[in-house]
Prior knowledge:
Elements: H1 9-15, H2 20-28, H3 68-74, E1 77-92, E2 98-112, H4 113-117, E3 122-133, H5 137-142, E4 156-168, E5 173-180, H6 201-204, E6 218-228, E7 231-239, H7 250-253, E8 266-276, E9 287-306, E10 321-339, E11 349-358, E12 366-377, E13 387-397, H8 399-412, E14 421-434, E15 437-447, E16 458-468
Antiparallel strand pairs: 1-2, 1-16, 2-3, 3-4, 4-5, 5-6, 6-7, 7-8, 8-9, 9-10, 10-11, 11-12, 12-13, 13-14, 14-15, 15-16
Amino acid sequence: MSATCGLGVGEALAAGCLHLGGALAMLALIAFVDASGKCAAAEEVSANGITSPSIATSLPYNGDPTGLRALMAAYGVTFNLYYFNDVLGNVNGGLRRGFIDQGLLEYNMTVDLEKLIGWRGLSFYTNGFLIHNTGQIQRGYVGGINSIATIEATPTGRLSELWVEQSFWNGSLTLRAGQLAADVEFFLAEAAQMFLQADWPIIDAALPSFGPIYPLSTPGVRLKVDPYENVSVLAAVFNGDPAGPGTGDPQLRNKYGVNFRVRDPALAIIEGQFRANHRKTDTGLASTLKLGAWVHFGKFDDNKLADDGTLLADPEGSGRPLKRRGNNGIYGLIEQQLYRPQGGGANSGITWFGLASGSPQDRNLINFWFQTGLVFAGMIPNRPDDKIGAIFEYSRFSNSTRANELNEVAFTGLPEVIQDFEANLELNYLFQLVPGWTVQPVLTYVWHPNGGQSGADALVIGARSTWHY
């Protein structure tokens, strides 16, 4: 750690070398302020501990014949189990054809410590994953950079989040500290969550070890303020490298999610959220606007320049990339309900969403990304819980990446595919068999996998099943 990294948080930000340890020391002081109000982290659950929709409600005794789940809930301890299973196949283009089966079993547990021990406004949360697959559709078959199914990951058992949260002033301010995943709260479009490919590709591709994003997480602190009913501001500081420096797959370098690194250059994110007509009693069209920015305080390789002033592609140059200090980006999203049926909530009817993000082109593989889609919820007669949707995603390879590839062609004289963009279109129908059990047939078309370097356009078909207990 350099000398300037011993400064306070504000000064360290200015110096560009903030580490998580300093931020934790500063923000931890807030946790000793006298707290009041309700626990903001707890989910809405029934008296018997069930979070709806759940297959437990279709089972005898609500899936709790001994009454243990209800007893735990009475003391503020609730839990959920989710299982996702994808059967997906690449039937055209990409790297190769074939089918895979992949699954994710997730547990989560929330403890309301006010109920359990009388500490007002304090809660605890943890979750983890058991991941299995017979192959990886995105990496091994299509060869693209955009996610095709976001549960894709290296098979293992993994701890994800592990944190405590203290609420203040009737829940209008919450402070969360522990092991966190950034994609749980930031840059998140609710309407997009039904899709298999909903992801953060522009941001995770820019960060060391792809950042604190599924399946990885890392120590951090998050502050949320709700100054008005429909306005929220979130700010967080994370350790900037969940796996730590090294080569190879970062999911293998942090295989079980227990590295708990705190001394890597930090990642900071801030986001403003604005909502309208989200209450069940509202009759107007619901809308959400989120604007955010992120900054990473590490060093990043230049895409085309070497550290001796030559081009990276120049065989007579050093071949070592020029190091750039820091990385950053901005993003925004909008969700707009286009049709709200009578008596329907904010997620009913027809909703359009759009997300976009940009970052410097000289140090990022992808410098512009956007995603847009439509969701039709409860629009089929007698099928109020079904959804139909389409989502389109576009990732543009940066000019500096393309320039380096053109330089390689010029120096070597060998042909090379110059990466331009990758785009995905997913069509999805989610239908509910019983509460807590859904099936989703899906079709995804991929244009220019890996910017054209992974073969012809690909077509992926398959289905996802989801169980929630």
